[in-house]
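Appendix B, example 12.
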Amino acid sequence: MDGGTTEVAVISLGGIVVSNSLRIAGDELDEDIINYLKREENLFVGNTTAEQIKMTIGCATPLMTDVPMEIRGRDLLTGLPRNVTVKSSQAMEAMSESVRKIIDTIKQTLEKTPPELAADLVEKGIYLAGRRSINSKYR
């Protein structure tokens, strides 16, 4: 994932076997958070704050503990600065639609994957790589 595109690929023997691309990634997730805070908290935050929320407490599935983060934005009713505590569950809710689309793209790619390679994926897991994925492995 980079700021604007998610690329999903199954690679075997140094070549791409199956791939898909989606115009949703980090920038869209930031926008999701900005829009959520406008709608739910009447608070305007910029891209930098939205990205900090995403990187610090953002999650795709519920965490064992709802992690809080204090942020500052502009109150849309008064125009004055205001501090708000945002929780990881709120960040998850804000990004849920975009995350669902990314997951659907991953599923579509896996559905096109030859069965013998799909078995390797189950056994060895998958990797996320990119500027914001922190090069993580998922099983």
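Strands lie at 6-12, 15-22, 43-44, 68-75, 81-87, 126-128, 136-138. The longest helix spans residues 88-111.
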